[in-house]
Amino acid sequence: MLIPTDFSEPAGEVLSFLKDIKGIDTVILLNVIDTRKNDPHFLEYRNVAKTKLGEIGDKLIQSGFHVENHVRTGYPPDEIISLAETNSVTLIAMSPHGEGWLREVRELFVGSTTDAVVRRAGLPVIIIRGKRFKGNS
């Protein structure tokens, strides 16, 4: 199972959901640093992402999962799909929104990254709605 994360609250809720699923062998955690932003703090973001993925991975290992961590740069949907394809992933689990969802008023129900992955992935994508969205079916 591939779990892309931007370390937002909704992405964290996907990880909480994961712990209740039986039969998952390997969890691949992925953070994509969007290089389209041309941010001078790129190296800092990369180091922070590695640290955060390590912390998340350690918790999942304690829960009995085998974990792989990946930090990539590029356009998030492309990197998510590429990693899924090269690792023969059978399921991608994502939140409907990430850190920027409040800024994206035009995408109220599913964020742009999630939407692009769902439309382009050649494998199942499960979208986990967290507490914030319960009751808004």
Instruction: Report the sheet-strand fraction.
Output: 15-25%
Shape: globular
Q: Strand sequence of the main sheet, in spatial order? A: 1-2-3
Low-confidence stretches: 101-110, 132-137
Structural classification: alpha/beta
Q: And the CATH topology?
A: Rossmann fold
The number of distinct β-strands equals: 5
From the N-terminal CA to the C-terminal CA, the straight-line distance is: 25 Å
CATH architecture: 3-Layer(aba) Sandwich
Radius of gyration: 14 Å
Biggest sheet: strands, sense, closure? 3 strands, parallel
Please give the share of residues in helix.
Answer: 25-40%
Q: How many helix segments?
A: 4
Can I get a quick summary?
Helix content is 37%, strand content 20%.
Give a description of the structure.
There is one protein chain. The longest helix is centred in the middle third of the chain and has 21 residues. Helix 3 packs parallel to helix 4. This protein has a single domain, classed as HUPs (Rossmann fold), CATH 3.40.50. The chain is of the alpha/beta class and 137 residues long. Helices cover 37% and strands 20% of the residues.
